[in-house]
């Protein structure tokens, strides 16, 4: 039986040794496994009466959602789900797990209510495990707001996506340099984000890792990482509704007209779609470029433009 109050259930398996080097007893604060440190969210969504509804839900603070809304006039069947986190952000010892199952034929947009803050750590680190399952003919957009790592923070994220062959999935992520107004730009200890996509049968489609460690191997200022840019973002589009070469050409065309960003678009392995990487000096420029790419991909694959998400 699943123990949702078990730290092992909420912690990604096979954490890198580099991260485990930060593992120590948490002093002067709540330790791993204490109430409020294990965030669990389990959702199942399925088509009901012409739209997508939540059919199963379990949430454990600090993770929770409110009632999904249907705000896209071009896709009235799509459920927009806003993930929320009690408190201000990740602190050391936090272990979060999110499991979302999109049934065949469902349409889901999953995002966060605001940017994700990661506070500094002295004795431990924070992790988040996200498991997404997308059934036959389903559509999932997973586009959380940017991550903001504070000075001395340590965060490991793993996103695992299981995709039916005729499903459409759009995944995005943005990493900001930190609290720039306070003079913090890439002064976190470690940021490590892994993404793995597989078919329903378990075959690997693609994997990607972003590992940044200021002052060490993987320093953001290195020409091999961000090369002097401050903000990095990625967009992954998986679908059989458009040939990969055509999707790549479409995304390159729209990004060529977006100013103040360095953009690269390439075909994903297994001819399953396209990947976009964006570098920029400001959050505004990179988010505008990511939105433009999402909008164009949506138009080509779903016949609907990107809607306004009504965030404050």
TrEMBL record:
<keyword id="KW-0963">Cytoplasm</keyword>
<keyword id="KW-0996">Nickel insertion</keyword>
<comment type="subunit">
    <text>UreD, UreF and UreG form a complex that acts as a GTP-hydrolysis-dependent molecular chaperone, activating the urease apoprotein by helping to assemble the nickel containing metallocenter of UreC. The UreE protein probably delivers the nickel.</text>
</comment>
<dbReference type="InterPro" id="IPR002669">
    <property type="entry name" value="UreD"/>
</dbReference>
<keyword id="KW-0143">Chaperone</keyword>
<dbReference type="Pfam" id="PF01774">
    <property type="entry name" value="UreD"/>
</dbReference>
<dbReference type="GO" id="GO:0005737">
    <property type="term" value="C:cytoplasm"/>
</dbReference>
<comment type="function">
    <text>Required for maturation of urease via the functional incorporation of the urease nickel metallocenter.</text>
</comment>
<dbReference type="GO" id="GO:0016151">
    <property type="term" value="F:nickel cation binding"/>
</dbReference>
<protein>
    <recommendedName>
        <fullName>Urease accessory protein UreD</fullName>
    </recommendedName>
</protein>
<comment type="similarity">
    <text>Belongs to the UreD family.</text>
</comment>
